[in-house]
User: What shape does this take?
Amino acid sequence: MKTRASASREAAETLAIQALGFIAEEPERLGAFLAATGIGPQDIRKAAREAAFLAGVLDHMLGSESLLMAFADSAGIDPAHIARARRALGGKPWERDVP
Assistant: This one.
């Protein structure tokens, strides 16, 4: 049986993956995301397995009101839900490993 915290975290990760998909739908949104994070397009799938990266996706959403509102509208959710999901993921903002 899942605990409430693990179910909440799983839901937050699912929402972050949905947000990443929304970002990737438009080249302009994806370009802005890649520029902000410094990650290459070839590394997104691998990074998306990391909870810290998913938290960073939500941080990116929360950093742009127009992006936040567009995603919330598209997903049919209250924008505050995205902020709650970000808190459920915890931790500090994601930073790309630099080789």
